Amino acid sequence: MDIKSMKNYLYWLYCQFELITCSYLMEPWEKLLFYTFNITMLVMISYTAYIFIPVHISTAFQFFLHLLGNQYENTVSIVK
Amino acid sequence: MANPSAVCNGHLHHHQKQNNLLKSGVCKKNGITKGMKKNGVSNGTLYKKTFIEHFEQAPMYVAVLTFVGFGVGTIFGYLRDFMRAWGLEKRNIAEEREQQKDFVPLYQDFETFYTRNLYMRIRDNWNRPVCSVPGPQFDLMERVTDDYNWTFRFTGRTIKNVINMGSYNYLGFAETDVNALKTVTRELQKYGTGICSTRQEMGTLDKHVELEKLVAKFLGVEDAMVFGMGFATNSMNIPALVGKGCLILSDELNHTSLVLGARLSGATIRIFKHNNMQSLEKLLRDAIIYGQPRSHRAWRKIIILVEGIYSMEGSIVRLPEIVSLKTKYKAYLYLDEAHSIGAVGATGRGVVEYFGMSPGDVDVLMGTFTKSFGAAGGYIAGKKDLVDFLRTHSHSAVYATSMCPPVAEQIIRAMKCLMGLDGTTQGLQRVRQLGKNTRYFRRRLHEMGFIIYGNDDSPVVPLLLYMPGKIGAFARRMLEKNIGVVVVGFPATPITESRARFCVSAAHTREMLDTVLNALDELGDFLQLKYSRYSKSSHPELYEETRFEHED
């Protein structure tokens, strides 16, 4: 029961996406093109996020620790 | 509910008082409430009842998403045009022949970009062939397309009893009942169908004379003249009334027939903001102070062109203010009552009666018989001098074939019914039923949370859709539920405000309206059309009590 209502909800969300971006009006090959483009962009953005965000966060973390005080610095460098 | 003795000559005596609904206590629907309260002392006496119009703006995200939709549509439009230009795709639009490719181009490609790339995709929602009388329910021919709306073919099936929410059948006179059409059949057998002449040659029949006298009596003016086509009434008669050296002040949202007539006349045209009296007054003052553009001479004539009900917005003209402006600045007023004659007013005599004014206040009363009377054609009414002038000088009278007799008889019978001259109160009942249906429909739509434009009393109800993808989805799904609606998109409306326009009719029963409202409710939830940020009023029971007519 829950799966069915979840599926209906997802289908409804998909319909909203179609209506808002006018892909409801497109022919099948145009839809394929549009979705491929969108999915490619999404995958590329998420891959970039996956690679770079941990590095950025740990660099920011180090920077703020340096501001707060020197006592924890040695332990952090050993862990890294 | 009608008082029979007061109806026999078509004028009501006690009814006016009961129409004074003072809704000042209840905090009504928001949007822009233009009532008696806002405009100081002078306006308090002009409007005898509250004038409430709604033009609510949608939330910001709706506008953003609409532009996103149009953006994606435009990108794909360019892609398709590129493919067509480079031969990767078959060209379905009109083009020149091979031998003429070097000539000056005949078909302007870029200007039809919108038609080719957006309109074509949802074209199946327009021009649907109807195969029965356009009454409250009608039959449609089913058609399918194999190549995405470039061509259609009929399957042979008819979709029966589709509820008709698109026809301008305000009083329900589009009917095939044999008893009702007795006189029309008789006239058809007596006169035939063709006139084969123009008014000035041999095309004036006794039927036309009878009809013109009846129209003049109905409207309460001295004389009237009827024409065969409503559009041509405007476009052919405005050039006869104004010419070079005259000034036309026309509303922003006037119908194409008025715009065409104004342009054909050769007069100077200035446009004031829709229903905005400050804008109109400023234009009038500037016209009188500065005169004609280079010579600064006085204008020969200043004429104000407005409509009774604007068909795309559902708003009613602010007639009392316009009449007071026109008497102050000595201009003329041309009122096009195409949608409002028969549809508003206590006895269906249009906006002049709706505001409780006298027909002598308006210089030229124009209207059409296409909407409330179930016929075709238009009229111009006013003082006898004006109509006599038009009989000799109008292009329509000289060149256009006059109205055919069965159609004239249909108008005569409809008008007699409205005035009560046929001995029944049917006409008045129809007007009342239309009023009830309108108010019920609009109230329920507001309560559901849709954005509706227009005045509370106008039977034209535009429901805003905004996004281009939803236009096609809405119309198709409503047809699946057996309801026929008219959706309107870009060139007829601003690009971000596409809408579905409902025309309420006196022939709709409460059950039909409830079916439509339930379907709209469902569809509104599915398509997320309920953009209104204002829910129904906080005192529903108080709101019900101030209504004059209880729905029962």
UniProtKB/TrEMBL annotation, chain A:
Annotated GO biological process: ceramide biosynthetic process; endoplasmic reticulum organization
InterPro entries linked: Ser_palmitoyltrfase_ssu-like (IPR024512)
Membrane topology: Multi-pass membrane protein
Primary subcellular site in the record, as a coarse category: endoplasmic reticulum
Chain coiled-coil ranges: none
Top-rank taxon, per record: Eukaryota
GO cellular component, one term: serine palmitoyltransferase complex
Localization: Endoplasmic reticulum membrane
Alphabetized UniProt keyword annotations: Endoplasmic reticulum, Lipid metabolism, Membrane, Sphingolipid metabolism, Transferase, Transmembrane, Transmembrane helix
Pathways per UniProt: Sphingolipid metabolism; Lipid metabolism; sphingolipid metabolism
Gene Ontology MF annotations: serine C-palmitoyltransferase activity
Regions that span the bilayer: 32-53
Family affiliation: Belongs to the SPTSS family. SPTSSB subfamily.
Subunit structure: Component of the serine palmitoyltransferase (SPT) complex, which is composed of SPTLC1, SPTLC2 or SPTLC3 and SPTSSA or SPTSSB. The heterodimer consisting of SPTLC1 and SPTLC2/SPTLC3 forms the catalytic core of the enzyme, while SPTSSA or SPTSSB subunits determine substrate specificity. SPT also interacts with ORMDL proteins, especially ORMDL3, which negatively regulate SPT activity in the presence of ceramides.
UniProt function note: Component of the serine palmitoyltransferase multisubunit enzyme (SPT) that catalyzes the initial and rate-limiting step in sphingolipid biosynthesis by condensing L-serine and activated acyl-CoA (most commonly palmitoyl-CoA) to form long-chain bases. The SPT complex is composed of SPTLC1, SPTLC2 or SPTLC3 and SPTSSA or SPTSSB. Within this complex, the heterodimer consisting of SPTLC1 and SPTLC2/SPTLC3 forms the catalytic core. Within the SPT complex, SPTSSB stimulates the catalytic activity and plays a role in substrate specificity.
Protein name, entry field: Serine palmitoyltransferase small subunit B
UniProt organism field: Anseranas semipalmata
UniProtKB/TrEMBL annotation, chain B:
Pfam families, sorted: Aminotran_1_2
CC annotations in GO: endoplasmic reticulum membrane; serine palmitoyltransferase complex
Spans through the membrane: 58-79
Compartmental location: Endoplasmic reticulum membrane
Listed EC numbers: 2.3.1.50
GO biological process terms held by the UniProt record: ceramide biosynthetic process; sphingosine biosynthetic process
InterPro entries: Aminotrans_II_pyridoxalP_BS (IPR001917), Aminotransferase_I/II_large (IPR004839), AON_synthase_class-II (IPR050087), PyrdxlP-dep_Trfase (IPR015424), PyrdxlP-dep_Trfase_major (IPR015421), PyrdxlP-dep_Trfase_small (IPR015422)
Parts forming coiled coils: none
Domain Aminotransferase class I/classII large: start-end pairs: 160-520
Membrane topology recorded in Swiss-Prot or TrEMBL: Single-pass membrane protein
The protein's required cofactors: pyridoxal 5'-phosphate
Molecular function in Gene Ontology: pyridoxal phosphate binding; serine C-palmitoyltransferase activity
Metabolic or biological pathway: Lipid metabolism; sphingolipid metabolism; Sphingolipid metabolism
Keyword terms of this UniProt record: Acyltransferase, Endoplasmic reticulum, Lipid metabolism, Membrane, Pyridoxal phosphate, Sphingolipid metabolism, Transferase, Transmembrane, Transmembrane helix
Endpoints of the signal sequence: none
UniProt similarity note: Belongs to the class-II pyridoxal-phosphate-dependent aminotransferase family.
Protein name: serine C-palmitoyltransferase
